[in-house]
Structure formats: C-alpha cells, structure tokens
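ARCHIVE CARD
Drawer: 12
Card no.: 0347
Subject: one protein chain, sequence and derived structure
Cross-reference: see card 0346
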Amino acid sequence: MGIFKSLFGPKEAKMVQVAPFGARYEVPSGQTILEAALANHVPFPHNCTVGTCGSCKCKLKSGRVSALTDFGYTLSQQEIAAGFILACQAVPKDALTEVEVEGAATDAPPAEQFVATLADTESLTHDILKVTLKLDRPIQFMAGQYANLKYPNIRRARNYSFADAPVRDGRQTVHFFIRKVPNGAFTEDLFSGRLDGVPIDVDGPHGNFHLHPGDGPMVCIAGGSGLAPLLSVLEKARKDRVQRPCAFLFGARTEADLYALEQIDEIAMGWAAPFVFLPVLSHEPTGSAWKGARGWVTEFITDALPDTDWAKAEGYMCGPPGMIDAGIASMTEIGIKLESIYYDKFTDESHIAKMP
C-alpha cells in the first residue's frame, strides 16, 4: 500500500517564501512562482509575464526550480551565475523555495487608473515621438517609473516610462518618448494620428527602477527611447542637489538619432558634482562631420569616468536587451558590483508573441 500511496496520493505542497515582503504561499501544480504570487496578492515586480522583460528577476536563496524557458534568453550570464531566476518562468521543485526580490522604494505611490487624451506629439527622431498626454487628474510617480497605456484597439497594454521628473502635487500632463515598432498596433495608430481624440486608459505608476541612496559615482547608459526614465531620474537628482559624480552615456546609431541634448545640457550645468555626458554613435557614416565617440556605448564607461573606484560605483541602464546585457558585462568587468547595477530592459513586439 505504501507504494501506491506514494504514486497516487496527494503530492507534497510546494511553498515559496519571498523576501523582503515576508510573504509565504503555496504554488499549485501547473503554476509559476509569479502566477501564485499574484494570486496571493504578493506585490511581486512583473511586466510581460512571458520571460522577456526581466522585471520579475529574483535571487534564488534556497530550493530548486524548473525553468519553463531558458533564463539565459533574458538574464545575463553574470546574473545566472549569481543565482538569479525569472519568477514568471520558474516552477518550484522542492517543498520550500526561498527567493529575494528588489523591493520598490518605500515612498513609491500606489498604482491608480486614469483616463487620458493625446494633447500633442513632437518628432524627436525619424522613429521616436515625444508624446504628451493630458490626464483626468494628476498622477504621482517616482522618477524612473512607467505607466501602462491601453485603448480599445489593443488587448495588451503597452508600457512606457515617464520622461518627466515628478513634482510634489503630481503631474496632470505627462510625457513619454515612444519609438515606432514596425507593424506594432499601438505605434502604427499613434504615428499615423489615429489616436487623436481617442480616450487612453493609463494604469500606473509601476516599476522598481529608481535612484538608490548612496554617494558613490553613477554610470548611466541610455539607448533609444530608454533616455526617458534616465532623464526623469537625473532631473529629479539635479533638483535634489544630489552630489555624486555622474557619467551619462547615450548610445545612438547616427547623429540624427540623438535628441533631448538641450535638456541634458541643463542637467549637466545644474549638477552639484562632476558630470560627464558622452554620446556614442554605432553606425555614423564614415567621413561625416561627427568628431565624437564611435562604437558601442557600453565600451566607453572608463573613458567617461577615468580614475574611478569602480567598486563604489552604481550602474543605471535603460534601453534594448542587447545593450543591457553588454552593459552588465562591461560594468562587472571593470569592478562594479552586480548588485549595484540597476536596469530597465525595453522590449517590444519583436521580443514577445505578437498580439493585436
């Protein structure tokens, strides 16, 4: 009877404990760590839920998990070696699994639902628009956070970072830098003007990307529309008179793809410590008038801040997955601690299953 009981009897419950929330919950058969967390109202960071964005990255402290898809598709080799997993792709194998996530800052406001209308668009580059939305009431957010935008023509909300620094009483007019995604339902409508007058549902704020307390040097790297959350973070830090050396590297394909340069100059002039801005072009035509850096932006960190004690530095990155992965490799190679590297990985319809 013992054999049949072990084969057909109730399976041992799989429990997960999540720090720093102190949450402990059961994961039913067929569910991932993230799915069970959300079902139990645990504020687990997440976004895409399909293993591409990295928002649900957490550190496996004890126990074993099975991966529905290879964590290496999204996480860097350095992160995997350090024991990080993706909760949305992880199924616990042991009776107790302990994971640790980076909690949101203690003063992060709760997410709310708003209704917005498109107030203005401004072309920044050939494929990036500065989009102005007017909300039905002010929204509170932390510098670096994002909002979910949705309207009736799409089933899945799109996530875009605020390009503004927050203000005390909230912002009723907010800005986003939105890159056109080929055949993307939302951006095709946006760039063609079909969203004029269309009510847009806004859910936010969300996200754990923010400036962490400290006094060490900051290395900030942006690529494409990833400039938005870093401008938000740096503008807020400037207003707060943060006194930390800062290197701000902006990677673009050509000189025509650089934008918001006046705003960056204003931040640099008002920064309360040494500030270096270094744009790097990867595909600028040979023989052009460009005299600046050429190549991959992640290769120029030490050029921007020479003679730096990298063990005391922090890294902040926002942009496409390839840039983030290369940035993690470059930063850890020069001595920046993996736990001191924070990023917001920008994925789009080319990184996830197509949805209308």
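Annotation on reverse: Residues 2 and 58 are 38 Å apart (CA to CA). The helical segments are 2-8, 33-39, 77-81, 185-192, 227-239, 261-270, 301-304, 321-334.
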